[in-house]
Amino acid sequence: MRTYIIAAAGFAAVASAAYTAAAPVKTYSLCQSATKLPLEGCPEGTLFVSQTNAAAHFRSIQSAIDSLGNSSIAPAHILIDAGNYTEQLNVTRAGPLTLLGVSELPRLGASYANRTSSTLPAAANAVQIWWNSANNNASFPDNAYTSVLTVAPNLNASLTGAGPTGFSVPDDTPVGSSDFRAYNIDFRNEWAPRASGPAHAVGVSRATASFYSCGLYSYQDTLYVGKLGRAFFWDSVVAGQTDFLYGFGTLWLSRSTLSLRGCGGGITAWKGTNTTAPNRFGVYVADSQVLAANETVKTEIKGRCALGRPWNAQHRSVFIRSYFDESIRSSGYVQWSTSEPRVNNSTFMAVWEDYGPGWDESGFRASNVTLVLDQESAAPYSSPQTVFLDGNALVAKTEWIDKEALPAA
Ligand SMILES: *[C@@H]1O[C@H](CO)[C@@H](O)[C@H](O)[C@H]1NC(C)=O
Ligand SMILES: *[C@@H]1O[C@H](CO)[C@@H](O)[C@H](O)[C@H]1NC(C)=O
Ligand SMILES: *[C@@H]1O[C@H](CO)[C@@H](O)[C@H](O)[C@H]1NC(C)=O
Ligand SMILES: *[C@@H]1O[C@H](CO)[C@@H](O)[C@H](O)[C@H]1NC(C)=O
Ligand SMILES: *[C@@H]1O[C@H](CO)[C@@H](O)[C@H](O)[C@H]1NC(C)=O
Ligand SMILES: *[C@@H]1O[C@H](CO)[C@@H](O)[C@H](O)[C@H]1NC(C)=O
Ligand SMILES: *[C@@H]1O[C@H](CO)[C@@H](O)[C@H](O)[C@H]1NC(C)=O
Ligand SMILES: *[C@@H]1O[C@H](CO)[C@@H](O)[C@H](O)[C@H]1NC(C)=O
Ligand SMILES: *[C@@H]1O[C@H](CO)[C@@H](O)[C@H](O)[C@H]1NC(C)=O
Ligand SMILES: *[C@@H]1O[C@H](CO)[C@@H](O)[C@H](O)[C@H]1NC(C)=O
In the chain, N or C terminus with fewer CB closer than 10 Å? Predict the structure, then answer.
């Protein structure tokens, strides 16, 4: 007998003193006691994917996704058995879809509570999805072709494109998933053990997606949040070396680990789109930890990694109440390059109340590129509710985020 639990561990309401006390381990279940088919305890209609269980509905995850079609926007759930799946996943369905990886243990548990340790969460998820692919030497028409998982209404909407505003699609292009969720799944693009051209693990464009206790592993461009993409991460690991959080949309990571596998470019590389309407497009890393991937890397990258650099001058990123290990360079952020700085007074590369050996407030201030915020200047970027807006209106829209992971408004 086996119990499938969807673990959500260690969450406590976001407080200004992050991680000072061990948070209680808390679990909740979407699929409890799923011991036989149909999956008792799972939401009605849950599909089961397994490589080994004879009673499974599907052997591959994409075949389960494809079977859902588009004609209904009813919420759908896919439970995925432990295993190593070599697949490239595309989610174009407009309705809500949840991928549940089986898990017997909370992934990170209370380890977030221990700020004196720079040990990465050791456990990998029991569900691993692999697609090793990089866009080096222009081997693909666009970086999007490399992704392990893409959530977007169609191929064109998923493309990164070039130039100040990237690939354009017509305004009447439909939106993709209104509420995609993944729990307890690792998405791995391990094309080469170093940055070797863009290699996405996950891309989210013109769609809304959230990830809980997941792992994203690549070296360059690991996580892409494209135009009108909204992505939320909680209790997850995102690993990379170069520009590994990048895009145009809005990304909030909380209670997560950014795992530095080397230094290149910056951790964040955002491109603001030219719009006169108010927006909060950008990348926000809150109540998280930024750490060298292991002791060997730690020695190599000490004092070298940049928090970010501007993909264009409208870059916006904020690190909030997060722990920086000694990998972070004393300037914090950097220019795009010496010959092409891409920094002007629209560039918003900021830190707010971060701490740890990599926090160097005087170094940050002296850099002229890193903004050290105060309560007032940080307020517009202080919670998921202040950055995830309904279109261009400055109105919060966060019902797509698992309420267990949202701080009280
Ligand atoms: C999982 O699959 C990937 C890609 O096919 C492969 O590189 C990796 O070695 C596999 N891992 C295990 C544990 O089988
Ligand atoms: C890309 O091209 C360069 C220059 O021709 C070559 O040295 C390198 O091996 C190529 N990389 C890959 C992964 O093919
Ligand atoms: C997913 O989309 C990519 C293009 O981004 C395409 O090359 C690939 O064949 C698609 N895979 C599936 C399973 O639909
Ligand atoms: C779902 O509909 C969208 C919007 O019309 C379309 O782009 C997408 O290809 C469709 N996906 C599937 C799985 O039919
Ligand atoms: C995708 O974009 C290209 C280039 O703009 C265009 O030619 C093509 O028709 C578009 N495809 C779809 C399905 O809209
Ligand atoms: C440390 O991490 C780097 C980057 O991921 C990897 O190449 C290397 O093999 C790791 N070393 C050890 C000892 O785990
Ligand atoms: C921004 O868009 C407006 C309206 O399309 C245009 O007039 C303006 O020149 C653009 N500015 C830049 C810097 O691209
Ligand atoms: C900043 O630079 C961008 C790109 O060159 C330009 O579009 C924008 O107008 C500039 N903003 C200011 C305030 O100078
Ligand atoms: C930004 O730069 C422009 C052009 O130099 C200047 O007119 C404007 O006052 C500056 N804005 C701020 C907020 O500093
Ligand atoms: C920052 O600006 C000040 C004042 O303009 C200048 O003296 C200093 O050299 C600049 N620092 C860097 C690192 O560019």
Answer: N
